[in-house]
Request: fold
Amino acid sequence: MADLWKTCTVAPNVLIRNVRLVLPASQKSQGAHPSTPVDLRIKDGKIAEIGSNLTLTGQEIEKDMNGAYVSPGWMDMHIHLREPGFEHKETIETGTRSAAFGGFTAVACMPNTNPASHSRDVIEFIRSRAEAYPVHVYPIGAVTRDRKGVALTEMADMKEGGAVAFSDDGDPVFDSNVMRIALEYSSMLGMPIINHEEDLSLSRPGHMHEGAVSTALGLEGTPSIAEEIMIARDILLAEMTGGHVHVAHISTRRGVELVREAKARGIRVTTEVCPHHFDLTDEEVRKRHFDTNVKMHPPLRTQDDVEAMIEGLKDGAIDALCTDHAPHSQEEKEVEFIYAPNGVIGLDTAWSRCVECLLDPGHLSLETILDKWIVAPRQILSIPVPTLELGSKADLTFFNTDEEWLYTKACVHSKSHNSPYLDQKMKGRAVGIYSKGSFVDNPLS
Reply:
């Protein structure tokens, strides 16, 4: 694997040739862009000129993108960087490297670190460590101290330190009164509570989706209702408090229906979905003979649930796309299925899964998919949304939708390799990013 950061070029002034500009659906009002390749000039880190056959000056470097698309930079609002405390799984350096390879110029990282991201000093540590890399990192602070679900954290102090939301992800905020108070406090700060929706009394010790496949395999399963009960509770608490609940990594048909119904009633609820939940089903556990790289939480569910995820993306019930990138070391995953930790990596392959599962079948347009990677995550987290307007700060993703490639370990830029897609053919990939005044090329090896 090539060290992606060695392809990073500090380039406040750069002339990028042969790119096709494309905007997310909600930015279409900013004006039409040519479908034929054009040149894009960046000066002092800002978009300075767009046109054909622009003249190279002596003060800028030149990059030819060979007809790739360029859009505002993508954001993954739900990943795990593991640092501090679990650097054997991932670090801020390797996690942002994987993000850049996947086409992401920004990520928001969950607080299940050690110590948990439950105080301003941990939030500021993550931000400081991330400054060296050309991917924006936005820490999410814990809702409760040590993520134990009991004592609320100092939310306002963490916001001052740079936190963009609050979550105990990895575990739910299980106590309803704690969740109520958390929503009341977070609403005063204008920030969402991102909840891992799981009724622990119903779900544990489930190792996969509870259904026909788990019964045939003799594995204890997690029923869909364990997720749905918590979603329903949080919707009602959001209605009561006026707070903003964000449903993390939604995975069931009824869960999507609950969110859709709540939106229709004007309740402040948003949600996200991961590629593996609109692509794979619980049959993978049987087909792959208990491969722990298809063990995650929420688990892979049924084909009907997969179809519901796509329906939710199409009608807007599901706001954003994310990966829930969750690295684990090889030693942790190479155990019996019931003992393996939940989680898979996803930054490297997210775009290919969107192309093959959403774009190519005609479920979503390119512009709508981009909306769910660019605009929705930042709006949910109250982060400025990048644009392609002249004079705006250059925050760009370069990508294609037709390149075929093989996802091998040589293409993995995370510190861990726990992907359900290893050694599979992919279609479409990000070929580079421009972020924080630097250009990153994305070679395959």
User: Anything to note?
Assistant: The chain has 13 helices and 19 strands.
